[in-house]
Design a protein that fits this description.
about 40% helix; 6-stranded mixed beta sheet; single chain; 13 helices; alpha/beta; binds magnesium ion; binds adenosine-5'-triphosphate
Length: about 425
């Protein structure tokens, strides 16, 4: 079943705003059995919206509009759709009352402009919008289904889940896309492909994609299923991929590395402190994105200067002089020093050269050392990461988390993990 998405809004044609709604919509429609074969971004222009819809009616079974249902002059999705379908717009008193009620409960008087949002296209089913003022609409025109949804993601998303998906599933009659994902660390994209391509290429019914973004690699395997069909081939391929990639896979549930680490630390009753030089706080920020991280993350220091490494991590001055700030010895001393300072189970450290200046033949830009200490043993890891200063910092951060996971997995450095 073919669906298409039309994102309406002139702001989406500027360099400042991105159409992210269509990504969410696509994932959900796939699960409900629809393939998105086309997406259009169109400005707040009635003629242009109308032309896209005219074409969409010729080529798609389901057409989803996002945006342009607001109260202002430039919100034109409603009149454009009504015109193309040759249907009237009428004011719906029930919606109008509900809108007035919503405004007054928040202590506002509704502006006359908002009345436009109570206009319904003849024959449309109204889709309630519990988080905003503009309701959505569901229409059928000669076997093509059309949904009009508001642009703000926090309004659109629950309406997709609650209103569009049940209808889409019904139309698809049990067809669906089964999706499995793998998140991978510690291998290059080409290594991942070299290991698994001979296997996945033998599964004709399955679409395999590898996506790489700043060190993290995602692998998706997708299989379209007919009504009542089980994803047997997909399960078999998933099992074989699991065997081939082993511990390089850190999640099959779309979890982030910091979530995985958080679970490890929590389950083993361990605590963590970090000493960050080249990433200056990014690792701490990443770890604390996870709700509940206060249960295991004690804190950290940005020891950017040598003086800070000495003062807060107890790194011996002589070590810095002898090996330099970017060295395995200093990374280890930082990890064990921060652990002592915070009295945590584990200490994690990073030191590196983010560039663009400061590299030498011996220590090039992108060189990063990570230390992990549990008090008894301290390990160090070395890597040269490529890219711009920003990319290096991001990759270094991911590398540090990968090293911590590796140390936890290997039980070389762990509490009871
Ligand atoms: P409103 O009543 O808020 O005006 P609307 O249906 O008219 O609703 P728009 O005015 O088109 O929606 O968009 C409102 C905001 O929603 C935009 O400023 C933008 O931040 C966000 N938005 C709109 N379309 C998209 C999209 N396709 N992807 C992500 N965000 C979007
Ligand atoms: Mg708008």
């Amino acid at each position: 079943m073919k669906a298409e998405i039309i994102a309406v809004g002139s702001e989406l044609l500027t360099p400042d705003r991105q159409d992210t709604n269509s990504l969410f919509i696509t994932r959900k429609l796939n699960e409900a059995g629809f393939k998105v074969h086309l997406k259009t971004i169109v400005g707040d222009d009635e003629q242009a919206i109308a032309r896209v819809l005219e074409a969409a009616l010729q080529r798609s079974t389901l057409v989803i509009f996002s945006g342009g249902l607001g109260p202002t002059e430039d919100d034109l999705t409603r009149p454009a759709v009504a015109k193309v379908l040759g249907r009237a717009l009428h004011k719906d008193m029930e919606i109008l009352d509900a809108m007035r009620e919503k405004f007054s409960s928040r202590g506002y008087r509704m502006a006359p402009n908002n009345e436009r949002q109570a206009e319904v296209i003849e024959g449309a089913e109204v889709l309630p919008n519990t988080l905003g003022t503009a309701p959505g609409m569901w229409l059928e025109e000669k076997g093509v289904y059309i949904a009009l949804l508001p642009g703000p993601p926090q309004e659109l998303q629950p309406m997709i889940e609650g209103e569009i998906l049940p209808r889409a599933r019904n139309l698809a009659g049990g067809r669906r896309l089964a999706r499995r994902s793998f998140r991978i660390t510690g291998l290059a994209e080409s290594d991942v492909d070299a290991r698994i391509a001979p296997v996945y290429k033998t599964y004709q019914k399955i679409e395999t994609t590898i996506l790489a973004a700043n060190s993290q690699i995602e692998l998706h395997i997708l299989q379209w299923l007919e009504a009542g069909e089980e994803p047997l081939e997909q399960e078999e391929l998933a099992r074989r991929i699991g065997e081939l990639l082993g511990e390089a896979i850190f999640s099959t549930e779309d979890e982030s590395l910091e979530e995985i680490i958080g679970r490890f630390l929590k389950d083993s009753g361990s605590s963590l402190a970090v000493a960050e030089s080249c990433t200056a706080g990014m690792i701490g920020a990443q770890i604390t994105r996870v709700p509940g991280s206060s249960g295991y993350f004690l804190g950290g220091v940005q020891c950017y200067s040598n003086a800070a490494k000495i003062k807060f991590c107890g790194v011996p001055e002589e070590l810095l002089r002898k090996h330099g700030a970017v060295s395995a010895e200093v990374a280890e001393a930082m990890a064990s020093g921060i652990r002592t300072a915070f009295q945590s189970t584990l200490g994690l450290s990073i030191t590196g050269i983010a560039g663009p200046e400061g590299g030498t033949a011996e220590k090039p830009v992108g060189l990063v050392y990570v230390g992990v200490s549990d008090g008894e043993r301290t390990l160090n890891f070395r890597r040269i990461v490529p890219g711009s200063r920003e990319a290096i910092r991001e990759r270094a951060c991911f590398f540090a988390l990968s090293c911590l996971r590796k140390a936890l997995l290997s039980r070389d450095v762990s509490a009871q993990a």
